[in-house]
Design a protein that fits this description.
This protein has three helices and four strands, in the order αααββββ. The chain is of the alpha+beta class. It has a single domain, classed as Nuclear Transport Factor 2, Chain: A (Roll), CATH 3.10.450.50. The protein has a four-stranded antiparallel sheet with strand order 1-2-3-4. The protein is elongated.
Length: 146
């Protein structure tokens, strides 16, 4: 079969269609106007992260609300906490936390940065969380336990 002049045009159109299809199914940014109030998620995610580090909750339970990078870092931190408990022969105990305050601001349209102050019997800590709107829901892209 002899190639025609239309063959390169078809190949280019096919490539453009494939790129458009990939873009359509790729994760989509969601604006803050289309998302719920982030404060309940900041509260619940903070409690979840502290329970993961205490060893009473599995990291997989929080995977839905974390990006891959944040999830990987939390898994690493949870493993280090488990090793530290094992080295000290400490048993796993459910932590008692009280949320003292939640502050958040929006540095960009589809992002929220929040700080949650948490008191436990031993000390008071701050948890910094960055949420971004992806695929119609908030997802934590960064976690820092101070």
């Amino acid at each position: 079969m002899v190639p025609t002049a239309a063959a390169p045009a078809r190949a280019a159109r096919r490539m453009t269609d494939q790129l458009a299809l990939n873009e359509y199914f790729a994760p989509q940014r969601t604006t803050a106007d289309e998302l719920p109030d982030p404060e309940p998620l900041l509260h619940n995610l903070t409690i979840g992260v502290l329970e993961v580090l205490a060893g009473v909750r599995e990291v997989e339970q929080l995977a839905r609300w974390l990006t891959e990078d944040a999830y990987a870092k939390l898994v690493t931190r949870a493993n280090l906490s488990a090793r530290a408990r094992s080295a000290r022969n400490q048993s796993v105990a459910r932590p008692v936390h009280e949320i003292l305050s939640i502050r958040h601001s929006a540095p960009a349209d589809s992002a929220v940065e929040g700080v949650v102050i948490v008191a436990s019997p031993a000390r008071t800590r701050a948890v910094a969380i960055r949420l971004e709107g992806w695929d119609g829901r908030w997802r934590a892209t960064s976690l820092a336990l101070l």
